[in-house]
Write a structure and sequence with these properties.
Blueprint lengths: L2 H6 L12 E3 L6 H12 L5 E4 L5 H12 L3 E6 L6 E6 L7 E4 L4 H11 L3 E7 L10 H9 L3 E3 L8 E6 L5 E5 L6 H9 L7 E5 L7 H13 L4 E2 L9 E4 L8 E3 L8 H10 L2 E4 L13 H7 L3 E5 L2 E5 L8 E3 L7 H8 L6 E4 L11 H11 L4 E4 L2 E4 L12 H8 L6
Parallel strand pairs: 1-14, 2-13, 5-6, 9-10, 17-18
Antiparallel strand pairs: 2-4, 3-4, 6-8, 7-8, 10-12, 11-12, 14-16, 15-16, 18-20, 19-20
Helix pairs in contact: 2-3, 2-4, 2-7, 4-6, 5-6, 6-7
The protein binds shikimate-3-phosphate and phosphoenolpyruvate.
The site of phosphoenolpyruvate has 7 residues, from α4.
Length: 407
C-alpha cells in the first residue's frame, strides 16, 4: 500500500446480520517478522523466516536490509509448505537509501544496524514519520560512538555514517514515548564491540511485552541478555557481544490482528476460532483473552486454537492499556457498543503513533453515533445509546431512520 492509497482507498465494512460463526486464520505477527528479519540479517549464517507477515512495514524492512547488502529471497519453505523467506547475511554497506514509510519498527530498529555498515545510510519516510519520536535512538547511538547527521532535529530524515562497527557500552535513554527505542538498541547490541547496556530513565516505559519479545528473540538467536526480570536492576537491559545464530523461525499469528474477529463474536453473540494461537507468547494480543472476557465473552484454548464466544451483551471496562496500547483501537470500538461506560487509560503515547490514535478514534466513533471523550492519558466511552437521538421529535425519528449506517 502506498501512502496516498492508504488514505484514500475505502472498502465497505462488512455487516453481520446474525451471530457470526467462523474460523479465521490471521497472518503472521508484524512485530515478530520485523525483529526476525533484523536478527537474521545480523547473524553469522543464513536463516529462515516461515509464515512471515507480508505487509507494507515488513516489505519496507526487507527492502532496507537488502539495500545494505543482505540477501532476502522470498519463496516457499524447506518442507514445501507455506511462504518462507531465506535471509542471507552479508557485510553491511552504504551508500544506501532506506524508506521507512511510517513504520516505527523500521525507523527505530534500523539506524543501529546502519552503524555497522561501511558507508552512509540515508533514512527518509512518509511525512508523518518526521513527527514520530526518534531522538532516543539518535542520542543513544551518538553516545555509543555513531556519527549521525539529522540537522539537529532529532528526527527523520537523517543519515547514519556507518563505520563498519560501533563501540557500544552503557547508555541512558528516556524511552517513555516508545518502547521501540530500547528494542532497537538491544537488537543490534550483540554486534556492538562491547555489547550494550540500556538504562531507561524517565516516566514509565510503555509496551513492555514488546521488549520481552525482543529479549526472547535475541535469546533464541543465541545472545546473552540480562533483564530486570532475570534478577538485574529495574529498567536496565544488558546484551553481551556475540555472534548470532541463523534460525529457522516460524512466525506466530499476529494476535493483535485477531482483535476485530474476536470482537465480531463478542458483539454479535457468535463464535470465532483463531487457529495456531500460541500457548505461551510475548505478544500483547494475548491480553485480548482477558480483556474481552471482562467485556462479556468467554474463551477456550484447545488444539484447534482460541475459540471465543460472545453473548451479544457487551460490558464496559476500566482498563490500563499502557502495556498493550496497540489493542486500543478495537477495544475502543467495542466499548462504544457496551451497556456501561468504559475508561481506557495509560495510553497517552498513542498520540505519537502512525496517527494521533486517540483523536482519530474519538472523531470516527463519534461520527458513527458513539460518545467518546479524549482524556489526558486515554479516552472515555459512554454507554451505548439505547435509542436514536430523536429528541422526542417524530420528524427527527424519520431523519434518524434514513441516516447512513456507515460511510
Ligand atoms: O516493537 C514493536 O513491535 C511495537 C512496540 C509498540 O510500540 P510503542 O512502544 O511505540 O507503543 C507497539 O505499540 C507497536 O505496535 C509495535
Ligand atoms: C504502532 C504500531 O506500529 P509501529 O509503531 O511499529 O509503526 C502498530 O502496529 O500498532
Amino acid at each position: 500500500m502506498t501512502e496516498s492509497t492508504a488514505h484514500t482507498d475505502l472498502w465497505p465494512a462488512p455487516v453481520a446480520t446474525a451471530a457470526v460463526d467462523a474460523t479465521v486464520t490471521v497472518p503472521g505477527s508484524k512485530s515478530v517478522t520485523n525483529r526476525g528479519l533484523v536478527l537474521a540479517a545480523l547473524a553469522a549464517e543464513p536463516g529462515w523466516l516461515r509464515r512471515p507477515l507480508r505487509s507494507r512495514d515488513t516489505v519496507l524492512m526487507a527492502d532496507a536490509l537488502r539495500a545494505m547488502g543482505v540477501g532476502i529471497e522470498e519463496g516457499v519453505g524447506p518442507d514445501g509448505t507455506g511462504e518462507a523467506w531465506r535471509v542471507i547475511p552479508a557485510r553491511l554497506h552504504g551508500p544506501a537509501s532506506v524508506d521507512v514509510g511510517n513504520a516505527g519498527t523500521v525507523m527505530r530498529f534500523l539506524p543501529p544496524v546502519a552503524t555497522l555498515a561501511d558507508g552512509p545510510v540515508r533514512f527518509d519516510g512518509d511525512p508523518r514519520s518526521y513527527e514520530r519520536p526518534l531522538h532516543g535512538v539518535i542520542d543513544s547511538l551518538r553516545a555509543l560512538g555513531a556519527r549521525i547527521e539529522d540537522n539537529d532535529r532529532g528526527a527523520l530524515p537523517l543519515t547514519v555514517h556507518g563505520a563498519g562497527a560501533l563501540d557500544g557500552g552503557p547508555v541512558e535513554i528516556d524511552a517513555s514515548s516508545s518502547s521501540q527505542f530500547v528494542s532497537a538498541l538491544l537488537l543490534s547490541g550483540p554486534r556492538f564491540n562491547q555489547g550494550v547496556e540500556v538504562r531507561h530513565v524517565g516516566a514509565a516505559l510503555p509496551s513492555l511485552p514488546h521488549i520481552r519479545m525482543t529479549v526472547d528473540m535475541l535469546r533464541m538467536a543465541g545472545a546473552q541478555v540480562d533483564t530486570p526480570e532475570s534478577g538485574g536492576e529495574p529498567d536496565v537491559w544488558r546484551v553481551s557481544p556475540s555472534a548470532l545464530l541463523g534460525r529457522d523461525l516460524v512466525v506466530e499469528p499476529d494476535l493483535s490482528n485477531a482483535a476485530p474477529f474476536l470482537a465480531a463474536a463478542l458483539v454479535t453473540g457468535g463464535r470465532v476460532t483463531i487457529p495456531d494461537w500460541p500457548e505461551h507468547t510475548t505478544q500483547p494480543g494475548d491480553a485480548l483473552r482477558g480483556i474481552f472476557t471482562d467485556m462479556g465473552g468467554a474463551c477456550e484454548l484447545t488444539d484447534a486454537g482460541l475459540t471465543f464466544t460472545g453473548t451479544g451483551r457487551v460490558t464496559g471496562i476500566d482498563a490500563d492499556l499502557h502495556e498493550v496500547g496497540e489493542l486500543t483501537p478495537v477495544i475502543a470500538a467495542v466499548a462504544a457498543l457496551a451497556d456501561s461506560e468504559s475508561v481506557l487509560r495509560g495510553i497517552a503515547h498513542l498520540r505519537l503513533h502512525e496517527t494521533d490514535r486517540l483523536a482519530a478514534l474519538a472523531k470516527e466513533i463519534n461520527e458513527l453515533g458513539g460518545d467518546v471523550t479524549e482524556t489526558e492519558d486515554g479516552c472515555a466511552s459512554a454507554a451505548r445509546r439505547r435509542r436514536s437521538p430523536t429528541y422526542g421529535d417524530h420528524r427527527l425519528a424519520t431523519a434518524a431512520a434514513a441516516r447512513p449506517r456507515s460511510r
